[in-house]
Design goal:
By secondary structure, the protein is an alpha+beta fold. 23% of the residues lie in helices and 29% in strands. The protein has one domain: Nucleoside Triphosphate Pyrophosphohydrolase (Alpha-Beta Complex). The chain has helices at 50-62, 114-119, 125-136; strands at residues 9-15, 19-24, 37-38, 41-43, 71-78, 84-91, 108-113. It starts with 8 loop residues before the first strand and ends with a helix.
């Protein structure tokens, strides 16, 4: 995960006990997965590393500061367009959920049980699959 390595973007699952924050995506037809439950993350900016991208996006979208040492898993995948994307998992004390504040993207956020996200009809299928990969490892 060297700085400057080419990749498209990164997502982060922030586990807080058995729960995780998810964002309700805008319901616009011109975006992928409109109206679905999303994870914090997004596109790469400048020469940032995949982890820097995921941590920056988590701050922007949830005002949640995750420290690099709280991230214990990271893996690259290919999106449907063949671009490299990263998926990270962090574990935080559940009390930190009280500090979450919605950023300026999406229609809201909520805490959801990990098991509920995996079965939710509005969970984004590639992210559900990546979470299953994480749990199987």
């Amino acid at each position: 995960m060297a700085r400057g390595r080419m990749f498209y973007g990164a997502k982060a699952v922030v586990l807080m006990g058995a729960h995780m924050p998810v964002l309700l995506r805008d319901d616009k037809p011109d975006i992928p997965w409109p109206g679905y439950l999303d994870l914090p993350g997004g596109g790469r900016e400048g020469g940032e590393s995949p982890l820097e991208c995921a941590l920056r996006e988590t701050i922007e979208e949830l005002r949640l500061h995750v420290m690099p040492e709280e991230v214990h898993c990271g893996r690259s995948y290919r999106d449907p367009a063949g671009r490299e994307v990263w998926f990270f998992v962090a574990r935080l004390d559940p009390i930190r959920a009280a500090g979450i504040v919605m950023g300026d993207e999406g229609r809201g956020w909520q805490m959801i049980r990990l098991s509920e996200y995996l079965a939710h009809p509005k969970g984004i299928p590639p992210f559900q699959a990546r979470l299953r990969d994480y749990l199987a490892a």
